[in-house]
Amino acid sequence: MFRPAFSSTGEEVANTFAQEIQGKNVLITGTSVGGIGFETARVIAKHANLIIITGYDSDRLKVSEDAIKKETPSANIRRLVLDLSSLVEVRKAAAEVNTYPEPLHVLINNAAAPIGPFKLTVDNLESQTATDYIGPFLFTKLLAPKLLAASTGSYVPRVVFLSSYGHALIPELDLNKIVGKPDEAKYHPFYAYAHMKAASVLIAIELSKRSGGRINAYSLCPGQVYTNMHQREGSIELFQQIGLLDTDGRPSTEKFDAWKTIPQGAATTVVAAFDPRLNDHPGAYLSNGAEANKERAAHSSDPANAEKLWNQTEEIIGEKFTF
């Protein structure tokens, strides 16, 4: 039996739940080498029937596929170009997935936009809002039929949303920061980040509720992990300003000493996707490989906030999320 710990790795978890992973088809967003999504795909690919990896850059997707297959030649990998910052592109990618003959057992919403200066997308949404929340909401909505097709008398499909302990750093939730009109004058990159991570927690709760037990959704904190996200131009200086990175752009232990490796960072994602002990805990928030609802901020545990957010997000995408 898997006993979660801070130091647990994604590979250890995947090996523990190999039987649950076998035969499953899994889609993971944001799978570039050097990130948590890639590590998640790498360890699951050793056991799963099919892993669909996604990203907005086809060349980087090929690098990820090659890296996984070099280690596990038998891995069944399918590449999907997905730009979560564009609603048109999200619909295009979802339409492609819906042509696949296989059902979808697990959807892992891992991708995130760079934490950086204010930027509008083609849909006039703030970049983090689009990539971290609106795009994944729409993508999940469009793939719901594929997920439901994986249901059996003994299996409930899962949707996983990567959040962060950062969701609790805001004292209260301002839904207008998530679904309101973008305002550059009031934009702060880390404030926006916290709201997007809060949205991930809330939407996991509401998705589990609205599906009526037909889809189990979970949110999680992977831990403080140094990934390719911290190495992007325009983001390094911001992380240095808050003391997360040192003057060399490396992880700082002066203010943040609880750093995890990327393999450790992937552990809780794999737990959320496959641990059968979560079957009776839909909507749960996880940290360090275990249910951690007590660490969930009050504003991100409020069912009224979850319902309002869901309804207002449907207005943005222009369609209802039905089951």
From TrEMBL:
Residues annotated as coiled-coil are none
Tell me the keywords, alphabetical order: Oxidoreductase
> Oxidoreductase: is it a keyword of this entry?
yes
Q: Which parts of the sequence are annotated with region: Disordered? A: 284-306
Any one GO MF term held by the record is:
oxidoreductase activity
Gene3D superfamilies given for it? NAD(P)-binding Rossmann-like Domain
Q: Which domain of life is it from?
A: Eukaryota
Q: Which family does it belong to?
A: Belongs to the short-chain dehydrogenases/reductases (SDR) family.
Record protein name field: Short-chain dehydrogenase
Q: What is the lineage of its organism?
A: Eukaryota, Fungi, Dikarya, Basidiomycota, Agaricomycotina
